[in-house]
Amino acid sequence: MYESLDEFKLVCSSHRFRCPSCNEISHEPFFCSSEAKPKCNWKAYGLQGCLGKGHRFAIKDTFLANPKVHEIFMPVELEH
Fold this sequence. Notes:
two-stranded antiparallel sheet
């Protein structure tokens, strides 16, 4: 749970995310934009989500008005 959207953006400041399907680096948190061949096209919002390898979070500022847990590809900063 992050206090605000700004706090979340600090964690993902490099804009590098690990695709759960091809394990390449994507610059998009919700879909694979890697240059891997063949093209991956994996989406975090698809049927299988992030295969248990993603980052699930909520923003405290907006949680009461919109109680939603988001899932994105794992930010590289949080992998270890």
